[in-house]
Amino acid sequence: MCYNYLMFDPEDESIPSGESRSFEESELISGSDGWITPGGKFYSCTPEEHDTCASFLLENRKDEIQKALKQNKSNRQNQIDSLPPRVILKAAGYALFSHGILAEQNLPKDLSLEQIKKISDANLKFTPESGRIEPNLYLEFQKTLSANEELSNLMEVFGYEGREGITNWIANPSTILYLSDWMDSRGARTALEVYDLITRGYSSEYKFGEAINHGDQFIWRKVSLASGGDIYIQMNEHEHDAFQDYVGDHDYLISLVSLDQIKEFLQTEAIPELE
Prior knowledge:
Layout: E1 25-26, E2 34-36, E3 42-44, H1 50-60, H2 62-72, H3 85-91, E4 95-97, E5 101-102, H4 113-121, E6 125-126, H5 135-146, H6 149-154, H7 160-171, E7 177-180, H8 188-198, E8 204-208, E9 216-224, E10 230-239, E11 250-257, H9 259-266
C-alpha cells in the first residue's frame, strides 16, 4: 500500500474541499473525539470521522490554517506539500482528541495557552511522552539496539518507510518508533516481533485498554539494563475506525517512558506489576 497524501501548498489559496458533512464549533470539550483548534475551539466528531472533520476544517478555516503554516514554515526543513488532512492540521497547531485521550502522535509540537486551558478544564489525559527519561539510559539502551543482529535482520521484511523508521529510532531512541500494518506483508505480526526483540529479557509487563478503549491498547514492559537502571518500553497499538488509503488498519507506536508518567496516565499511585 502506498501513501495517498492530500496535496497541499501553504502558498496556494485553494485548499482542498472537505466532504459535505458539517461540524459544529464548541467552547467546551465534550465526547471522546474531536479536534481542538489553536484558539481553544472544539469540533466534536465520531472516531470514524477524524479525517472527514479534518477536511471540513481545512475548507472552513483555511485562512487561519494558511497563516499558521506560513508562520511555522521557517521552523521546518521541508515545505509541506504532500500530506493528509490530519497532518496538515497538526502542522498548523491543531490537536486531535481520540478515544478519550491525547496521544503524543496526535498533538502539535507546542500546544497553545488556549488549548492548555481547555484541556485542563476538561481534565483530559495525556499518554506517556517520549524523550523524558535520563539521557544516560537512552545512551545505554541505544548500544543494546545497535548490537541487536536479529532486529537488523527483521528490518529487511519492511518497505523503505519501515526500515528507515527503525534505523532512525536505533540512532535516537528518545523519539517514537512508528510502525503500521501496511509497511510489510505480515502486518501486526512484524510490529509485535520488533517489540519482542527490543524488550527481550523484560522482567514485568502491564497491559491497559483491551476492554476499556476500543481504539487504543497499551503494553508497558520493564527492562533492566546492565548498569542496573530500569527502562519502561511502551507500545501503543491504535486501531483506525475508518479506512484511509494512507494508513493501515493498525498503527504501533513504541517509545521509552517513565514509570511516573505511566502512573499519571493511569491515575494511580502504584502499579505493582511494574514495580
